[in-house]
Amino acid sequence: MRWALVKVCLAVTAMVVIAFAVPLGLVIREMASDRAFSDAERQAAMIAPTLSITTDREELTRAVLSTEPGDRGRLAVHVPAEGGPLDIGTRRATPKDVATVRKAGRASITEVTGGFALLQPTALGTGDIAVVEVFVPEGEVSHGVATAWLMLAGVGVALIVGSVAVADRLGVRMVQPAQRLAGAAQDLGEGRLGTRVPEEGPTELRSAAVAFNSMADQVVQLLANERELAADLSHRLRTPLTVLRLNAASLGEGPAAEQ
Question: Which of 11, 63, 105, 246 could be joined to 50 by an S-S link, Cβ 3.0–4.6 Å?
Answer without folding.
Answer: 63
